Amino acid sequence: MRMARAVVGIGLLGLLSAPAALAAPACAAPLAVARALFEAGTSARFLDTPDALLAPGFARVIAAERDCQQREQGICRLDHDPWLDGQDGEVDAEPGYRWRAQSPAAGTVEVRFPVWGEPHLTRLAMRRQADGCWRLEDLVTHRGQSMRALLARPLP
């Protein structure tokens, strides 16, 4: 009888902790978020990056650019792929990731990958949000262009 209770107790404990364990990998580590961002950004348009990966302020400027491009049926501020830092290119190999913490709640993930044989370095400014999740505050391209600054500019 004691053994049955112990097994049931362990089973219930496992069920209760499962949602937290399953949710944790999605946003608990900056490198996991960086990998998800890279996969999302290279398989679709940068402007279609899921909001769950973005800090609220960055999500707003991306949504505003996306809305502007739909409204204008063309380019507003962003005329290139930030990951490629150009309009054309192809990622030739798997990226490498390196975390550089600036504080317990902020840091940068350096993403290194080749584009048509040339090394590229993209920096992802990350911040831990109030819910404990790490999210992207800014993407700085290989040439040093801040996407947040670019997308926050007034239209010409």
Automatic annotation (TrEMBL):
Keyword line: Signal
Cleaved signal peptide residues: 1-23
Domain of life: Bacteria
Protein name: DUF3828 domain-containing protein
